[in-house]
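The instructor's notes for this session suggest beginning with a concrete chain rather than abstract definitions. Hand out the sequence below and ask the class to guess, before any prediction is shown, which regions might be ordered.
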Amino acid sequence: MVGSTSSRYRSLGVDISKKGIEALRSITDDLFPASFCSVVKHPTDPERGIILHEDGAGSKPIVSYICYRETGEPRWFEPLAVDVIAMNVDDVVCVGGRPIAFSDYVALNALMVKKEDLLGGLARGFSKTFAMLRALGIEVLFSGGETADLPDIIRTFDVSGTVYGEVSLQKVITGNEIAPGDVIVGLRSGGRCSYEKGENSGLMCNGITLARHSLLTREYLKKYPEIGCKEVKGYYGRFKVDSQFPELGTMLGEALLSPTRIYLPIALNILKRVSVKAMVHNTGGGLTKCKRLGRKIRHVKDSLPEPDPIFNLIKRESKADWREMYQDFNMGVGFEVVVEKGDEESILKISKKFGVGAQVIGRCERSASGNAVMIKSGFGKFEY
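After discussion, reveal the predicted structure:
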């Protein structure tokens, strides 16, 4: 495998630029097209907006499937429930919204995975996650969902979810108020926060395709051909899901399936106390996700923390360059908050209360043309 990460991704059948979505974006009823996620008008309350957000766990289900087939244990499906909830509620709060209800969608090939095991594992994961949020004073109602047996379409299974949320139109965070001199506070994706059961690798849900193909051995593809397709020359790694890495503190499968951190409790606390210019959930696009926010703003990130060990492992084994690593992975910063200089201390205190590492990672400057991102680290300086 040669070339940049983006060309690697193309060879794996993934287009990180998401070409073609303009056709759908152009017909939405979004009130704030430049905001982090869509807000549409409420049909009966002109002062409120509706957020209906859909996301999934990426290709993490394939890693869960491998672990399940290797061990026969349905517990490997539980972390995916956390991922699906996190990927939705944390996007909703980025525009100042409050998640209200959640529904799931599970598509599977029941010839490959036992339906009772899959749905039972997901149910336990959903139940535990909603209970955790309730304990923190956040009620997100589970309204059920849909399960589809699609053996002619799905090789293994996929899981996604939809969150319904609402927001006052006077309080929508659009990112348009970002100004030169504002500071960027980054919240860590790794470690262990007060409401998590164990250590988090920090990987979240993006870049999983590159991670699993560069780390996992081709033996799995031979054993379970349903985890790949003949057009993709993947699984060129050296390891198994039970391979141990001292730097990870756990076996590889657990690190890859470490559930996405839910930032919602922290974000809601921040919104109560601080006037926020923007919030960014660093999913697809990694540390360049913020580029969509602001008007002629250059997001300068020159005080980033050291990447968590999982990212160094992926970098080494995939031979990806650092420029693309920062574009495709969160690199240890899962969530960002942009505020006026002077408000950053409040965010650091709130984050610390929840046991999540946080620091000022950069600032905003005026851009001569469109929005831009500059990342400066010990691995180089990268412009996007």
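Then share the key points. The mean pLDDT is 94. The first strand starts at residue 40 and ends at 41.
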